[in-house]
Amino acid sequence: MGLSVLGIVHTIIGIVAIIAAIISYIRFGKINLNHNTGKFYFYFTIVTSLTSLGLLKHGFNPGHIFALFIIVLVLIAYYLHIKKLGNNKFRYFENFSLSFSFFLSWVPTVNETFNRVPVSHPIANGPTDPIIGKTLLIIFLLFIIGSVFQFRKQKRINNNIVN
Prior knowledge:
75% of the residues lie in helices and 0% in strands.
């Protein structure tokens, strides 16, 4: 697959972040920074994004911009989580930032995976292959549905605290 040592480390850490996020979504309906799964997602996503900056096979590319934006999103979410504990309106932004970072993580993940796997005959023939676009569209729709679900759930939580 032509992965460097940094690429292998980056991939393993990224897989752990994705698994942690999925477990957190299943358990809590969101990436929950109060629990280990959310903490794993946060830290491993930061490391994955930082290590991606060292992967320069094709020079600085859109994947690096995604990585920087993902770092900003998870740091904003962490700040809101730590500094705004008493203000539940900030939970909307925290949840959205984490979910959006998770969605954005899938863009380079799908592209790289589909263009490398299986090794002998990759699923895609480049970043513009229709299978990549269709897969990302499905992930985007799941992101929208999940965001609506999180918004509604947080609204119920906020209403119960107010009442």
